[in-house]
Amino acid sequence: MMELTERTLTPGDKKPILSAYYFFFFVSFGGLYPLLPLYLQERGLSGGEIGMIVAVGPLMTVLFQPIWGMICDRYQAQRQVLIGTLVAAATLSLIYPFGTAFPIFLLLFAGMTLFNSSGVPIIDSISLGYVAKHGGHYGSLRLWGALGFAAASFVAGRMADWVGLSVIFYMFAGSLLICVFLARSLPHESGQMSVDLKSGLRTLLRVPKFMMFLLATFLIFGTIQANNSFYGIFFTAIGGGVAGVGLSFLIAAGSEAPFMLAAGRVVERFGYIPVMVTAGLISSGRWLFYGTEPSATLVLALLFLQGISVGLYLPAAAQFVREISPSQVRVTALAIYGAIGNGLGSMAGAMIGGIILDRVGIFATYTMFGVLSMFGVVVLIVIRFLPDMKQVASGNH
After folding, report:
1. How far apart, in whole angstroms, are the C-alpha atoms of residue 242 and residue 121?
2. Structural domain contains residue 208
3. Helix (H/G/I), strand (E/B), else coil: 383
4. Model pLDDT, residue 10
5. 119, 25 contact by CB (below 8 A)
6. What distance in Å separates the CA atoms of residue 9 and residue 343, rounded to the nearest whole number?
């Protein structure tokens, strides 16, 4: 039956499949990451231990995203990789509630994120190739991930209040198993994936804009990702409840969708750098505001700002990487951007945030996030004045 469906679908029929995959894949993130620190805190772990566990996820991303890409390229096995890795991640998440100590929690989460790290680069490569071939904007597909994250955060918060925080692991497993089913019908756009890290990195080292952009993303998006881990602790510290954490992510992540939908047109009008600078400034201002110990009501009222910052930054960044990279290493650039820019930034933010949380408190953690984001904005401004070396790098490849 699935084989018949695959043969009879037209290219236009693939958008609902891509959208559904994004939705359910980010349901897994939205149900787990916002509440995981609260679950670990409930199990008696310290801020430093929580920070180490949260940080191991980005570390696995850095190490294994490029590896999954090379396996896909070598064996042309995008679907098989997705199915195998997502099943493995779902299985480990079902074991997680039976953990009893920090080392076990750390190892299980490392395994979950090791396998789960295959999901984003493969689907992004498929989607970017799909819209390039058939038209449309990447943001119109990626927005379904924001909606999935938002819906799952809200549902997980309410269910955690009713049945306990361990429910987040069952939501994680269930959503990934739905993605396993959807993976069988994904389009074949990823057949051109070629992640050659050695030669690709050598070429990209000669593209100053790309290297500087990795630093900007490390600083700006790394703190955005770290917020996903520490927001639950922050919100409860200002008087909110667990259900309020879920509501917060529903509002914040849900507000990303319309901006992701409009991102392509906004970038066409104003340009990549101005859009990303605006997003970075809003993000930095938000973290500095959180450092002032605001009221929970005011925090909830201003959560729509995440839609502007994340909703514009993510699509603009992915398209910017493709734009500034030589054509023969674009997929390599996306893999390195995801692993180094997002992965290392998230890891550093989580580890440093955990240390500051233990020594000074959660509000100082957010002040640090704001300062780091502001440095990232400065880097973006510098990038605007750098020469475009893409053609030079391409000619020397």
Report:
1. 31
2. yes
3. helix
4. 47
5. yes
6. 35
3-state SS, residue 341: helix
pLDDT band at 200 (very low <50, low <70, confident <90, very high): low
Question: Nearest to residue 319, comparing CAs of 141, 77, 162, 168?
Answer: 141
In a domain, 2, yes or no: no
C-alpha separations of 338 from 28, 60, 390 in Å: 18, 12, 19
387 exposed, middle or buried (CB, 10 Å; 0-12, 13-18, 19+)? exposed
Residue 132's CATH number: 1.20.1250.20
Residue 192 lies in a domain: yes
| Domain around 197 | 7-396
| Distances 125 to 11, 195, 322, 336 between C-alpha atoms, Å | 16, 11, 11, 13
Averaged pLDDT score across all residues of the chain: 81
Neighbour tally for 391: CB within 10 Å: 10
Please indicate, yes or no, if residue 94 is contained in any of the structural domains: yes
Instruction: Taking each helix axis as running N to C, give the angle between helix 256-270 and helix 138-163, from 0 to 180 degrees, rounded to the nearest 10.
Output: 160
Q: What is the pLDDT of residue 197?
A: 57
**266-279 residue pLDDT tens:** 888 898 899 999 99
Instruction: Quote the tokens at residue 102.
Output: 């920090």
Query: 35 near 157, Cβ under 8 Å?
Result: yes
Residue 110 structure tokens: 């490392």
pLDDT > 80? residue 343: no
Range with the poorest average pLDDT among 56-65, 93-102, 145-154, 182-191 = 182-191
Alpha helices in the chain (DSSP H): 2-8, 14-32, 36-42, 47-75, 78-95, 102-116, 119-134, 138-163, 167-183, 197-204, 208-237, 242-254, 256-270, 272-290, 296-301, 305-324, 330-336, 345-359, 362-384, 390-396
Domains of the chain: total: 1
Residue 69 is predicted with a pLDDT of: 67
